[in-house]
Amino acid sequence: MDPFDEAMTTQFACSVNNEAVLRALFKVKETELSFKRAIKIATETEDAAKIANKTVYEEQQKVNKEIMDQLTVDLPGVAVYLDDILMPAPTNVNSLRSFLGSVQFYCEFLPNLSMITEPLQQLTKKNVQWKWSAEQETSFLQQKQLLTADTVLTCFNSKLPIV
Predict the structure, then answer these.
(1) Of 1, 108, 150, 163, which is least surrounded by CB within 10 A?
(2) Are 73 and 80 in contact (CB under 8 A)?
(3) Domains of the chain and any CATH numbers
């Protein structure tokens, strides 16, 4: 092997920061490895990795779409998430405050919200022990139902009058 070619091949192999390329380079016998061949192996390996990543990404997108299709129901132009995976019942004061904050964002569109949230608001007060009872569960489910109502989640339609 030409000393310059050997030096370039060694330099190239030392600078590669891709495990798959290094594995492919080390599979070739030293006597058969030239700088030109090392570049070709690296290019082919990286191209194959890009294709594999693209395929995995596309498959993951299909799986995600299937999952979302199972978890959603279409209202007029709106996807409403019904599964408890996406809106589980709070398990502590911090998650309850987070949920109540999310609900509060829509307070202008939710009738009687303060009455409905009262059982949950009680749990956020200082020196109140956490106890999730049927009353809190009912309040939580009512709020979820209000949030998913078509009066709250509708897409803007420029043909309809703005109220």
Answers:
(1) 163
(2) yes
(3) 3-69 (no CATH), 76-147 (3.30.70.270)
